[in-house]
Amino acid sequence: MPTPSLRTALLAALLIPAALAPAFVPAHAAKPSKSKAAKAAKAAAPKNTLKPEQVAELYARIALRQDAEAAAQLNDYLKPLFPNGEKAVVLADQDAMDAQYDGFADAILEDMPKVDKKKAKPAVAAAIKRVNLLASGAECRGVSNREYANEYVKNGRIAEVEMQCTVPVLGARLQEVLAGKGAPAKLKTKKLLEGVAEFDRALSQAGSRTIPAKLTLYAEAKGQPWNTGSADDIVETVHNGMYGAAAAE
Prior knowledge:
The chain has helices spanning about 5-15, 35-45, 50-65, 70-75, 95-110, 115-135, 175-180, 190-205, 230-240; strands at about 25, 90, 140-150, 155-170, 205-220. With about 250 residues, it is of the alpha+beta class. The protein has one domain. The strands form two sheets. Strands 3-4-5 form a three-stranded antiparallel β-sheet. It has a two-stranded antiparallel sheet with strand order 1-2. β3 (about 140-150) and β4 form a beta hairpin. α1 (about 5-15) runs parallel beside α9 (about 230-240) and α5 crosses α6 (about 115-135). It is elongated and about 60 Å long. The two termini are about 35 Å apart. Keywords: Signal.
């Protein structure tokens, strides 16, 4: 299931949710082992072989589109932190994602008493899913990083990675398009479906633009793997960058 932090990020980015991005269980979800065997394995492990920018790109690919190849690469890279075989990154189940789309559709429709929910819900859920699929095509690349000591963790390091993401451009969120068809309390099924169709046409005509993004990574010490539990920030940045004034050239 999507993590609570991801759901919160999307709610912040999308007002009443208009999209949901694929989620993953971040590295901090499984606690690194502190056993003697784990410490020995970590000492014998090869040094960090990926730059922070590369690690950030892998996290972005996973957060945005559940990229299995990126997940496999990141799990392999993070093995020194999880020598007992735990996977640092676990991709979300598609059935769980579909349930989330349905839930977000229910949230949009709950204030529309005159709308036939059985007719409207599949169309609204499909539109939400399509927004997410569009957002999942965003391409994020690491540009630079600033590394410094983590004052809260002995020997720990922090890398703030500056990124650039090419995102689709939309003029309005789904709920904003629907609002243009009438007040929620008075909106009827026909008008709602017209709004969904209008929104679908806008998705088909979406352009693109490049926006800045940031991702903060952590390492237990110099030479140890970079990881984070906050890659959800990329999802919020991409979705916010798709709409309104933020998406204007």
